[in-house]
Amino acid sequence: MEIVIDRNTLNGLDMRRLPTYRHLSRTTLSQKPDGSMLESMSLEGNDNFLQIAGKQHYRLLSYIAGLFNDIQIGDIGTSSGGSAMALASNQRNVVYSLDRVNCRTKDFSEVRNAEFAVGSFYNESIFAKILKSTVILLDIQHEGPDEEYFYNKLVSSNWNGLLICDDITLNSEMRKFWSKIDRPKFDVTEYGHGDNGSGTGIVIFGNYDIILK
Fold first, then answer.
1. Helices 145-156 & 172-180, crossing angle to 10 degrees?
2. Residues 6+ positions from 151 with CB-CB distance below 8 Å
3. What beta strand segments (E) does the chain contain?
4. What is the CATH number of the domain that holds 97?
5. DSSP 3-state helix, strand, coil percentages of the chain (rounded to 5)?
6. How far is CA 50 from CA 3, 80, 115, 196, in A?
7. What pLDDT, in 10s, does the model give residues 128-139?
8. Which helix (DSSP H) or strand (DSSP E) does residue 63 occupy?
9. Is residue 33 scored above 80 in pLDDT?
10. Which residues have C-beta within 8 Å of that of residue 169, sequence separation ≥ 6?
11. Is residue 57 over pLDDT 90?
12. Domain of 125, in residue numbers
């Protein structure tokens, strides 16, 4: 499968029109001078969701999710749920979002194609579910050992798909983790998460070609 990633295409996405956008935002009503009601939405601290490619990775995640239909997407490291909402923007897919603790501050119960779980991928049954994913976002501790375990587990399981790694240049531990990956890989920071030196990378497992424009 050929995957073309173009920065202009990413920045052309209307993130406000994504079906999952409203779950990150708050709707308010105000009365206009003519007496009709005006509906407005604010992201309440989730304004990163709308940032351009190269600053935040949400556009890249939504774009990649839109290239596939009828698959499971793994979101490892739920945090506040922004990445899960970007990945769930294609409602033909199902997102399995996992974190060690529940850090979500918003109610995503109405997002029918996203399942949120609390647990550890060191648990074999949980990892077996992750392996059903065709695309996986890995955004966890940023300390190295957990990321390395996860990657090696995918390798030993003969997994096939795309692994998106966030924060690959955030610190020395993550730079070391990224440098040790011996599969075909692409640094897509200029299309993903560039703020604060974070970095984004894609690792290829299987028959995928990445073309960067």
1. 20
2. 138, 163, 177, 181, 203
3. 2-5, 26-31, 37-42, 72-76, 94-99, 114-118, 133-138, 161-166, 185-187, 200-205, 209-212
4. 3.40.50.150
5. 30, 30, 40
6. 23, 15, 23, 17
7. 999 999 999 999
8. helix 58-66
9. no
10. 175, 178, 189, 197, 198, 199
11. yes
12. 2-15+47-212
Q: How many domains does the chain have?
A: 1
* 133-138 vs 72-76, strand pairing mode: parallel
Instruction: Let me know: does 114 contact 106? Beta carbons within 8 Å.
Output: no
Instruction: Residue count of the chain, please give it.
Output: 213
Structure tokens at 17: 């029109």
Q: Which amino acid, residue 64?
A: I
Task: Note whether 155 and 177 are within 8 A (CB).
Answer: no
Helix (H, G, I), strand (E, B) or coil at 111: coil
State the amino acid at position 52 in one-letter form: I
